[in-house]
Amino acid sequence: MAVSQSANVLEKAMGHVEGGVTEQNMTNPDRDREAYGDPSGEKMKALVWNGKNSVQLVETHKPKIIEDRDVILKVTGSTICGSDLHLYHGAVVQLQKGDILGHEFCGRVDSVGPGVKNLKPGDRVVASFQIACGDCMYCQKKLSSQCERTNTNKVENIMYGGRTAGMFGYSHFTGGFAGGQAEYARVPYGDVNLLPLPDDVPDEKGLYLSDVLSTSWNCVVDTGVKEGDVVAIWGAGPIGQMCAEMSFIRGAKRVIVIDGGPAAWRLDLVKSKTPKVETLNYTDLPSGQTVTSKLKEMEHGGPDVALECAAGEYAKGIGHKIELALGLETDTSEIINEMITSVKSYGRCGITGVYVGFTNHFNIGGLMERGIRLIGNGQAPVHLYWKDLLKMIQDGSLDSTIMLSHRINIDEMDTLYEKFEARADNLQKVFVQTRFSDPPAPGTPELTSWK
User: Fold this and answer.
1) 11 pLDDT higher than 60
2) What pTM was estimated for this model as a whole?
3) How far is Cα of residue 163 from the mean position of the Cα atoms in its chain?
């Protein structure tokens, strides 16, 4: 919390990078009701960050169109992501109390600004989790997650040597945009950042083009999974599950998924949905055996490819736990080191789980001496992939519902965070409905309530 508050003060003192093209640091219409709230006075439910390990469902004002290319959405579906837990824990800097969360959502167009010509009220659409301008150097290449013009945060620019695009519901570090865990959402550059959903793709499938499908596909493609590869995946959450499925689509010969501890049940879930997957529960390893030694036992020399689908804030060893607690590092290097020592020489390691800052005890020697390729997959450029992934959903070659385990009402979103954090109730990927949602599509979960 102290680091986040310091970053907010620093950003205020330094100002912003020049070149921004859309209103930023507007994370809740009630921060300035006259400027950002709809003149009708209509209220909406929204989930806000309320401090470390605390979120709250509140009533706030519906957002209004403030720029020519804005679109206001009636949100018909949102979800929770492992990335949201990093916000929940306060691991991502520059959160402020009252910020509306949520970066994955779909909906129906409620209203459009005068500059939007390709959408109209009533259209079904999914939003990309990043906000792209559509015109800058990166956007012209469809590398939408690196848009140069929608996030002017100077702290991120100094830390990383550049900035990501603005992102919905992901702190002022990424521009400060209100998220989609709400009944309405404002989408800047809506003509660029919304993809129409056809009638044969229900929300329960189309929603996940927003992030998880594009992120998983980017992880697999960017790390270079190819025909005949043996792939090891750290993390059996939704990203890891879809990376396993997509690795087989790309021609992988074997896929081994690694997880354990309170989340070990996810291994059985992934295996039940994709029987070809092999699993490794690290908590069941006998004394003296490691993930690396087990993988080399399972495959001569180790896997060809390692995919990191967990994150850097979850330390296993006491040393890293202490360093994280004292602020001596922001991310543990344990999984990355396991990947480096596990793969074959000249193997490929891709990082898709969120890492936000700096790490200690990184095995740079193993990386260099054995010729390991370490690839930061980056925030996935959704616009590069989402049209092709939509076609794969339509032709049946990709089934996004294999990860869908629950459906809840937005009224219970705060409880969902607690349960998702605890890996409880076999929660894998969740569909969160609002008052604007259609009934559950055939073959998808019915509504769960914890009240």
Assistant:
1) no
2) 0.94
3) 17
